[in-house]
Design brief:
This protein is an alpha+beta fold. It has a single domain (6-96), classed as Arc Repressor Mutant, subunit A, CATH 1.10.10. Helices cover 48% and strands 17% of the residues. It contains 4 helices and 3 strands. It has a 3-stranded antiparallel beta sheet with strand order 1-3-2.
Length: 101
C-alpha cells in the first residue's frame, strides 16, 4: 500500500496527539523525527521540508501552536524557536472532508 503524502501524514500525527490526549499537542521536533523515520529521509533538507510544511499547515489554520520554547541546540540549532502544535476544528473538518481520517 502506498504511503500517504507527507502533509497528510503530518496532519494525522498532530491529530493523534490532539484528540483525546490529556497532554494535547506534539512538538515540531517530534513530528520531524517521526516523518523522517517513517519516510526513510535524513538530512537538513528533509528536516527543513517538514518544518516548512508545518508552517504551511499553520498558515492555513489547520494546526495551531499551544506552546513554544527555545532550542538549546538539541533539535534544529541553538536559539531556534520550537513549537508545540494541536489540530484545529477546521483542520479536523478538512481531514474528514478529504478522507485522511
Amino acid at each position: 500500500m502506498p504511503k500517504i503524502h507527507i502533509k497528510g501524514r503530518i496532519l494525522q500525527i498532530v491529530y493523534e496527539n490532539t484528540i483525546g490526549n490529556i497532554h494535547k499537542g506534539i512538538w515540531d521536533y517530534e513530528i520531524v523525527r517521526q516523518i523522517l523515520e517513517e519516510y526513510k529521509l535524513d538530512g537538513a533538507y528533509a528536516m527543513g521540508n517538514v518544518r516548512v510544511t508545518l508552517t504551511d499547515l499553520f498558515s492555513g489554520a489547520l494546526i495551531e501552536t499551544v506552546d513554544e520554547k527555545l532550542d538549546e541546540g538539541e533539535h534544529f540549532g541553538k536559539g531556534k524557536i520550537l513549537f508545540k502544535f494541536v489540530l484545529t476544528r477546521f483542520g479536523e473538518q478538512r481531514m474528514l472532508d478529504t478522507g485522511i481520517i
